[in-house]
Every structure is written in C-alpha cells, then in structure tokens.
Amino acid sequence: MKQHQFNHWSEIKYLQDIVTNPMIEVGEYSYYSGYYDNHDFEDGCVRYQWGDEKSRKLFNPIEDYGWHLDKLIIGNYVCIASGVIILMGGNHNHHPEWITVYPFVDQIEASYKPKGDTIIESDAWIGMNAMIMPGVTIGEGAIVAAGSVVTKDVPPYTIVGGNPAKEIKKRFTDKEIEKLKEMRWFDWEREKVERASHILSSSSIDQLYDFYQKEIKPNLQNKNK
What we know:
Elements: E1 13-14, H1 15-18, E2 24-26, E3 31-32, H2 41-45, E4 46-47, H3 53-58, H4 61-65, E5 72-74, E6 79-80, E7 85-87, H5 108-111, E8 118-120, E9 125-126, E10 131-132, E11 137-138, E12 143-144, E13 149-150, E14 158-161, E15 166-170, H6 174-183, H7 190-195, H8 197-200, H9 205-223
Helix pairs in contact: 6-9
Pfam families: Hexapep (PF00132)
Organism: Paenibacillus anaericanus
InterPro entries: Hexapep, Hexapep_transf_CS, Trans_hexapeptide_repeat, Trimer_LpxA-like_sf
C-alpha cells in the first residue's frame, strides 16, 4: 500500500512547495489537504495531466503533434480538500462527434480536442470529493460543496453543489461582491494581508474596504502614474 503523504487530516501542503508539473501554475498560500485519499496532489488530485516526470519521459505531445495542451491554473489562497479530482487534458482523445469515442492509436493525433485551461481563481474553496471537469473556471471566492461535479463555470463568490453542480446562493450582495472584486485582497502584499487578517476573518466588507482605501489603493494609484 502506498505510504500516506499526510500524517493527519489537519496537515496541509502548500502547492507552491510541491508542484513540479510545468503545465500546472499555482499561486501563493494555496493548499491541498489530502489525508483521506492517500495520494499526493499531482498523482491523485490532478488526473490525466501531461507534464509529470513519468509522462515527460514517455512522450511529448507538444513536440510530437504540436498540441496546445490545457493548463491547470490556481490562484492565491485556494483551499482544496481531500478527495478532490481535477480532470485534465489526457482524456480528451474521445471525440464525441465521431462514430466511436474509442481512441484508436493511429488516430490519436487527429482525435485530440482541447477543452481550454482549467482555472481555480484565488480564495476559492473546493470541498471534499468534488470533481472539476476540464475547461471549467471557478471564480474568486467561490465555494464548491463536497461531492459536487462541476461541469460549467462558477461565478465569483457563489456557492454551488450537486451533480451537476448548480448555484445554491451568492455569498454576499451584488454590491459587496463588486467591492471584493475591486479589492482583490489575495493579491496584496503578505504584510498587508496579515494586518487585515482580523477583518478578513469577519463579515465586515465595509471595514475591509476602508482598509483598502487607506492602505492599498493609494499605492496602486502611485504605481499607475
């Protein structure tokens, strides 16, 4: 049996420290908590993604066929729970418009059909055992309920659940969401995030916006001059 990658369910691993696949882009402080599925991130959570050490040795579809391979792009402060499955580009050789979806070896080059990059934007939370289908974008601050199958894009700050996943509710009002999208706290310097952590760990969006107006926005304006 494969040895556990995690010693306890409370242990997390920052993706920036463990991802080696060049087709996976990760931001800062995003983590994976994979204790219960007994896999590491690239070998268990992300599936059918060319670019791991073994697949790079076996073949190179970019050089061999000129394919534009889909990437997995993960923002900052993303939370990914145990058992999450992110399906990627290696299973796109089942062409739905053809008579058969069987991937005959001599037709592999012609059968590949990219779905587009899979994007998990900053501050999203992917619940336990959720599955994200290829080419989906999960918006910033969105929450995917445990066990959900996400087949289409999820708007920012929206909670979805079910199979297929459907909107349950918005986390905040439209006006509050617009403020959050303007502030993009997850892109702030770490020192600013730590100073605002007590506000971020509350429901006071107005208070965070005041902090943003005083501490963040003036610096952004100076940079743009």
